[in-house]
């Protein structure tokens, strides 16, 4: 086996096909898209060179700035929500429910397997105000607060979106972090308890540092996923009201495919790629530091 | 050693070849379209999912009047949600795989682009050669030419005028006479609101039912050229007289005349609100007659529905007999696939469509009605008469906008009437979108 894997040609044969397919369906379109960023035109009339005009437009286009700000805001809020809720659930499974957690785990995980569009429709109905009140507004009216038109205001729509995405994915992060928590040896926890550590102290000084690697992986997963959010926004608000909940991905999609401005759409895609790259690098750099050493 | 090496090389080559051919296969599978080749076997028609009128009428024709044409080239309907139509057309056009007949895009801008790149059949020439040009109503031809750079780029499968449908019973119960001026309209709305009736049903989710009111106020105050002046760059939407129009409509919203949460009301809900007697007025095109004539959908009865033009604004340059007219979602034919069999189909459609669609669905098209059809109700007769008497065509808000400005106008419209956007902000947003093209 060692001889086979030591042979460069063998390695090439083994990974060659996969690398070729990967290059053709991933790298080539990426480079192609980069090329488009320097053009203007569309599929009907063909493309012509446009120099760096698309990039200059990125700097002055307010819609891009708003979309970028929304993307960052959304990514931070949902990542925090997903990971914190997931971690709390994992703690609940491991330290409170213990062996009986299987049913709760399954129930909380259930939204993860639902199609995003279905979840979007569900939340739309739950928060709707017309033609009739959804459950949320019915509840608000029952307690005398009056119904709210959740989707007519960018701020409210944002929070409904966050709530939906956290609800939809916290089960996944709970299971991921649960796997990290069950790996903590019982002996360590027991000795902490014998030393007189309270529940909170155990979590702060034993559980948190020992589950840090998996917590970091969750963060990287989450932030990269949320920066590229698309489906849940389209399903719930379609970027509205106005463009108040339009992330970069949706703006890129609209620019390229609705307004048929492929060149500028590619420039926005490049901005998104750079953003994901920078965030990933920062998270990687942070996670390389050994946090247990302060 | 040599054998070993060459075997390794052969294996490598075989692997690479296999991988390459797999990729080529995948690529070719993606690249092939279901579009029409020259001399298409099928009379393929790509329709917007939301529009059932045209495809139902064509299906009826394929079984009756156009049976022979259908045997030579059978009708095959494919649908795509209206919101994804433009994207689909662009991709199909890029691959040179447009169907024989298709909905020509959400805004005339895209249709004009397709036309100027030679993708559309020259309908005027073809129809004249087929002897079918005379089957088109002259009013419909002039509407099409006003929208599509003076070219007959689409067929008038629908011919609509727009105005305000109202509930006669609600009006008489509240002692309201048909308002002829904007002030009278506002007074009527106020009266209805006080009586606990929602004055207007409107779909904010669609957006355009709101912006149509803005353009209505504009062509009544500034005259029929109001929107053309913006398209030609002679006026800006941010000019005070334009902002004033947006402000008037925003005020209606502020008073709650569009009901609760207008932004989340979709097209069907707005229509049902009116047809269930829960709203007094409904700005809509005459295509709504299909729903009004359908007793299952219309619970207030067609005899209780009246139609009035957008009211006059005192001191305005526009006149009440000028109506916005359109041909619905334009349907056109591809240049590449237009052959004799397609020509036969088009001739048959031109001769029979007008009466079929009016008789079966109560809808008005821009084709002549060659077989006498009795109108199903009074409001249909009234609308047909109005079309006949209409003196001048006016343009709706987004008629000459780019796709981008149209989208932005429609998505920002709910904000205008819910108050999350001021009239000035709304007009500036749309003007910026216009300028960015």
TrEMBL record, chain A:
Superkingdom: Bacteria
InterPro entries reported for this sequence: ABC_transporter_permease, MetI-like, MetI-like_sf
Metal-binding as UniProt keyword: no
Membrane topology label: Multi-pass membrane protein
Family matches, as Pfam families: BPD_transp_1
Coarse class of the protein's main subcellular location: membrane
Domain ABC transmembrane type-1: 68-283
Protein's cellular compartments: Cell membrane
UniProt key word rRNA-binding: no
Keywords annotated in UniProt: Cell membrane, Membrane, Transmembrane, Transmembrane helix, Transport
Membrane-spanning intervals of the chain: 12-32, 74-96, 103-123, 157-182, 203-223, 262-284
Similarity section: Belongs to the binding-protein-dependent transport system permease family.
Annotated protein name in UniProt: Sugar ABC transporter permease
Originating species: Streptomyces durocortorensis
């Amino acid at each position: 086996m060692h001889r086979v894997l030591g042979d460069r040609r063998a390695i090439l044969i083994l990974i060659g096909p996969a690398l070729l397919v990967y290059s053709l369906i991933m790298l080539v379109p990426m480079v192609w898209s980069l090329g488009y960023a320097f053009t203007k035109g569309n599929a009907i009339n063909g493309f012509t060179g446009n120099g760096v005009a698309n990039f200059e437009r990125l700097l002055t286009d307010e819609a891009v700035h708003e979309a970028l700000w929304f993307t960052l805001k959304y990514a931070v809020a949902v990542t925090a929500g997903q990971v914190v809720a997931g971690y709390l659930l994992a703690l609940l499974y491991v330290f409170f429910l213990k062996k009986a957690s299987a049913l709760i785990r399954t129930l909380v995980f259930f939204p993860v397997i639902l199609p995003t569009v279905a979840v979007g429709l569900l939340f739309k109905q739950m928060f709707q105000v017309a033609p009739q009140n959804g459950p949320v507004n019915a509840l608000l009216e029952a307690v005398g607060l009056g119904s709210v038109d959740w989707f007519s205001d960018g701020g409210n729509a944002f929070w409904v979106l966050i709530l939906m995405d956290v609800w939809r994915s916290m089960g996944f992060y709970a299971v991921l972090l649960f796997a990290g928590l069950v790996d903590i040896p019982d002996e360590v926890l027991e000795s902490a308890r014998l030393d007189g550590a309270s529940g909170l102290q155990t979590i702060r000084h034993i559980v948190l540092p020992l589950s840090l690697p998996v917590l970091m992986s969750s963060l990287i997963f989450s932030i990269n996923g949320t920066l590229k959010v698309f489906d849940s926004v389209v399903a719930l608000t379609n970027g509205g009201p106005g463009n108040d909940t339009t992330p970069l991905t949706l703006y890129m999609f609209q620019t390229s495919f609705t307004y048929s401005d492929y060149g500028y759409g590619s420039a926005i895609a490049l901005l998104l790629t750079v953003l994901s790259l920078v965030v990933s690098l920062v998270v990687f750099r942070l996670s390389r530091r050994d946090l247990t050493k302060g | 050693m040599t054998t070993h090496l060459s075997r390794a090389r052969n294996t490598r080559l075989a692997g690479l070849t296999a991988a390459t051919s797999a990729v080529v296969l995948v690529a070719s599978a993606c690249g092939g379209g279901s579009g029409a080749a020259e001399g298409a076997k099928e009379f393929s028609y790509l329709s917007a999912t939301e529009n059932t009128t045209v495809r139902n009428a064509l299906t009826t024709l394929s079984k009756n009047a156009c049976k022979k044409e259908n045997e030579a080239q059978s009708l095959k309907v494919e649908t795509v949600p209206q919101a994804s139509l433009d994207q689909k057309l662009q991709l199909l056009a890029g691959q040179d795989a447009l169907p024989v007949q298709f909905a020509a895009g959400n805004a005339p801008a895209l249709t004009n682009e397709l036309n100027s790149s030679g993708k559309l059949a020259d309908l005027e020439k073809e129809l004249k050669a087929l002897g079918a040009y005379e089957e088109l109503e002259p009013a419909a031809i002039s509407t099409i030419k006003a929208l599509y750079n003076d070219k007959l780029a689409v067929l008038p499968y629908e011919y609509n005028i727009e105005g305000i449908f109202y509930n006669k019973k609600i009006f008489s119960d509240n002692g309201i006479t048909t308002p002829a001026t904007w002030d009278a309209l506002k007074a009527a709305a106020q009266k209805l609101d006080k009586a606990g009736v929602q004055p207007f049903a409107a779909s904010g989710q669609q957006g355009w039912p709101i912006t149509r009111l803005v353009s209505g106020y504009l062509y009544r105050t500034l005259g029929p050229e109001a929107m053309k002046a913006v398209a030609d760059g002679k006026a800006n939407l941010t000019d005070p007289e334009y902002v004033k129009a947006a402000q008037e409509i925003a005020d209606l919203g502020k008073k709650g005349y569009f009901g609760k949460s207008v932004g989340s009301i979709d097209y069907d809900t707005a229509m049902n609100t009116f047809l269930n007697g829960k709203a007094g007025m409904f700005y809509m095109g005459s295509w709504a007659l299909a729903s009004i004539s359908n007793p299952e959908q219309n619970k207030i009865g067609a005899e209780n529905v009246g139609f009035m033009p957008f009211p006059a604004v005192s001191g305005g340059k526009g006149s009440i007999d000028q109506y916005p007219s359109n041909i619905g979602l334009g349907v056109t034919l591809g240049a590449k696939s237009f052959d004799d069999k397609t020509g036969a189909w088009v001739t048959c459609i031109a001769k029979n469509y007008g009466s079929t669609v009016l008789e079966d669905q109560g809808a008005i098209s821009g084709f002549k009605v060659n077989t006498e059809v009795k109108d199903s109700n009074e409001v249909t007769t009234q609308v047909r008469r109005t079309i006949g008497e209409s003196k001048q065509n006016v343009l709706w808000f987004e008629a000459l906008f780019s796709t981008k400005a149209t989208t932005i106008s429609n998505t920002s419209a709910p904000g205008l009437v819910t108050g999350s956007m001021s009239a000035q902000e709304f007009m500036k947003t749309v003007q910026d979108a216009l300028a960015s093209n």
